[in-house]
Amino acid sequence: MALYFPTSLNDALDILRTPDCSIVSGGTDYFPALKRGQGNTVVLSLTKVPELHGLTTAQNGVRFGAGLTWSQMIKADLPPAFNALKLAGKEVGSIQIQNTATLAGNLCNASPAADGVPALLALDSEVELQSAARGTRQITLKDFLKGVRQTDRKADEILTSIFVPHPPKDMRSVFSKLGSRSYLVISICMTAVNIVLDNEGQVCDLRVAVGACSPVAQRLTSLEEEAIGQHWRDIKVREDHLAQLSPIDDVRASAAYRWAAVQEQIQRSVSEVVG
Ligand SMILES: Cc1cc2nc3c(=O)[nH]c(=O)nc-3n(C[C@H](O)[C@H](O)[C@H](O)COP(=O)(O)OP(=O)(O)OC[C@H]3O[C@@H](n4cnc5c(N)ncnc54)[C@H](O)[C@@H]3O)c2cc1C
Description:
binds flavin-adenine dinucleotide
């Protein structure tokens, strides 16, 4: 195996021109997959690329560098709208995994059960991609994720950052994950809820994103739109709100169980985020 550790983004982009070259950030998805015969033996590690480190707050939003680990994000000083993302981060494997694994890797791996996706969808996140040949482009996370293990990333592109436009100041959020045990478990279903209420408890903004119930995590737009102007106590999650979900039977749960569980999970998350 050839393993490269470039120390600048330009060098990393140059190395990525090598045929059959794989990118590795924390390696917590990549190396287990390599053992199963997936992946390439030319490996480009991004861990020493300083341009990808850290988190910056600009006038229009917050930018997470692609090298940012879950632990670094969890410890960062972020407003309550990011609580769902922090709660999701605390669910990613163990503390050892969170110390190594990155948010960017979670997105690029594109698992339907990636814990970071619902909270980042509820924050209207975008990703930035860079290639040596074509420069930089931005794309919404919704459009970036194409299917199971499929993204819009081209072979010569590095995901350089995740951008979150500033959420409303009074937005609060919560994340809930259902698994067959409390820790180190792949989600059966998960929900991120972000909400803004007026002084009377009426909904000004609602964002609900559900993961592990479709090939790509989904925002429940009909529920979100219907809730605007309602008192939060009047939000009732119905089956038709879940129309774009397509849960499957697998070793973790049946589709029927997922349907029932996620409906209840969303309802409880709405109460929890307000409470
Ligand atoms: C024991 C264990 C438990 C886990 N538990 C969970 C869990 O509970 N929930 C969960 O969601 N995940 C879990 N995971 C999966 C994994 O830890 C997360 O998905 C993590 O966020 C991946 O980040 P990484 O930096 O390690 O990614 P890597 O393994 O480095 O990369 C993942 C994929 O993304 C690509 N990639 C990485 N960075 C970039 C980039 N900047 N640009 C372009 N492509 C890139 C790689 O080529 C690879 O295909 C677990 C993994 C293990 C080993």
